[in-house]
Amino acid sequence: MDNFGSVLLIIEDRVLSVNIKKQITELGRYEVFADTDLAAGLKSLEQKGCDLAVIQRELVKDDTAGTVARIRELDPDCLLVVLFDKKDRAAEKEMSKLGVYAFLESAENPDKLAFILEKGISRRVLLASNRKMYLGLEESNRALEKQNMLLVRRVEEATTNLSRLYEDLRSTYLRTIKVLAQAIDARDHYTHSHSENVARFVVEIANYMKLPAKDIEMLRQACELHDLGKIGIGDSILLKVSELTPDEWEEIRKHPVIGARILEPLTFLDGVVELVRQHHEHYDGSGYPDGRKGSDILLGARIIHIADAYEAMRSARSYRKKPLFKEEAILEIKRNSGTQFDPKIVDVFLKVVDSL
Ligand SMILES: [Fe+2]
Ligand SMILES: [Fe+2]
After folding, report:
1. What is the pTM of this model?
2. 52 three-class SS
3. What is the CATH number of the domain that holds 108?
4. How far apart are the first and last CA of the chain?
5. What's the 249 CA to ligand 2 centre distance in angstroms?
6. Cystine design at 34: which of 9, 99, 143, 331 (Cβ 3.0–4.6 Å)?
7. Which ligand minimizes its atom distance to the CA of 309?
8. Same domain? 346 vs 201
């Protein structure tokens, strides 16, 4: 039969030691080591380990707490049994507090010893397997934590890649739309570079007004795309040399809404869409498409409206072969301040117009 456990005897009295060793050996379940002094006993414990140690009280009398601590240090699960010459309840009570597992009297019958061994060593086996399980759990936890960190890092990497992809996609879209807008400008050779010039003027005004860089960038994009909706208007109207009929004007007036509709699905152009829609609104509410008034019109759209009008006057158009002189165009802007244009922005415009 395999050994169920090991027992270390640290007993000074050789006769007693031999006697107890014999009793335990006869049980046929335990391996027994024996030492006659504490130092040798502790050394055996350190080298071979044991499930249960029986120590003669005389050997620990001087420093029970220190000895128990030393044994715990060598093997935290080793069970301690103290062997008394005769019953001493007070000492047992003290030692119990220190963690001594059980007490024996040298004259006690072998059954009690067998009982203590059986019960104690089963407990020790349980303790050891609990500890093993706990250590295993701890190790699994550590592995999980490591896995977790790895996952977090992977998610971070994936997010960075995604943002980069999104950025690429965004700029590809933007480029495509800009090409489209330039194509609209190019359709009418009179309005060639119109959007580009409007963007330049708007940025000048916005810079003078100290608008945040983010807003200026949005305005610049809106300018480049502001007449995109003209894509939906036929050449017969867009390039008409003679005066437009009311119905034809009606068609032209649809371009801010058509442009906004084209750009709407592009969520990254969120702020731009509304600027495109509002770029023909008049300060006094007489503009289109919604007849918005005053501060109900986006500040950016009010700026674009002035720059757009000034740029149109300063360039040749199909219906007006010669552009207006600078002074004439400025006069026209002034004349419409407070009606078509926001007077505060007209003031800024007048301050920067020389650099345009
Ligand atoms: Fe327009
Ligand atoms: Fe325009």
Report:
1. 0.58
2. strand
3. 3.40.50.2300
4. 105
5. 15
6. 9
7. 2
8. yes
